[in-house]
Amino acid sequence: METVLTADRAFLENLHGRLFPMSQILAIVGPTAVGKTEIGLRLAEWLDGEIVSADALQAYRGLDIGTAKPSPEERAKIRHHLIDILDPAEDFSAGEFARRARGVIGEVEGRHRLPIVVGGSGFYLRALLEGLNEVPTVRPAVRKDLRRRLEQEGLDALREELLVLDPSTAGRLAPGDTQRLLRALEVAISTGRALSAWHCDAPAAGPRLDAIRVGLTLERGLLYDSIAHRVHRMIEAGWVGEVEQLLSRGVSPREPAFQAIGYRELAAHLAGDVSLEEAIEETIRATRRFAKRQLTWFRKERDINWYSAEDLEAASQAIMSFLTRKGLGVGDGQADNQHPGRVPVSGPEGEQAGVGSTDDR
Fold this sequence. Notes:
CATH class of the largest domain: Alpha Beta
Largest sheet: 6 strands, parallel
Strand order of the largest sheet: 3-2-4-1-7-8
Number of helices: 16
Number of domains: 2
CATH superfamily of the largest domain: P-loop containing nucleotide triphosphate hydrolases
Radius of gyration: 21 Å
CATH architecture of the largest domain: 3-Layer(aba) Sandwich
Number of strands: 8
Order of helices and strands: HEHEHEHEHEHHHHHEEHHHHEHH
Helix content: 40-55%
Shape: globular
């Protein structure tokens, strides 16, 4: 009996190895509020995969509603990684993410399952798939001085300085991203070179990972509506109470976790500085600006296969058909027949949505 079970196990592992070649990764990318989580869950179920979160802020414990974490039920159904691994005061760099994610991916592959990387943090995804260049160690005195200046001068003054020293990095950072802004200033001041220059010029550290990249997108007006609806749903789900609980635990709005859009805005409301309506409107505006930066970033990335997220069922079917043709799983070809011509689209916002527009900062 044991010999038969061993033979069956060997047969199944061999079959799975043919369906999902080892060292193959699926990456699902796109702007915020476009439906990446839902598509990732569907594909993970169909393809026997596990999800590796590439959302820099879902890593923080206690930030659940505002970071749109998968629900406990979704996480019980599909195994997720790199969610709830940090306290709000801990830093989380792209290099640290890549190190942890590569370790997780190796474990997933060791279980003969498909790693599915899901997220909109373009720089984190690049760090994971292509590796980061080595940057010299910054001087501790520079770090200490910048922390002092942050307290005395405020974040806006330091952002203006970064715009002069490293405009490329300053342009891609989200509002309130204190951790990465300070890191970029530390490098520029300590080395005399912009962080973006170090990333471009030096050879990347670590081998590149082979990945099939799938992008989800919406026409800009639909995306902006989706963002507004999602912010209001989060408020209804108790987001204000979540922020209040974090503050009551002694978490400062200056901690790295509070770079997540909406948390500082709601903290300002709870402090009596702005009304709830003002905090909500600023959160919507900031999220839309962030989505525009994400689209700008992904437009520059190569080898992303774009699909419209207007109909997630149609997108799911089309993506499965595409992955089947790429040899990543088994399909019956019905997706193309059910939704001919609806997806994929030509780029991050489709031809009619103005691909290549410069109005995306």
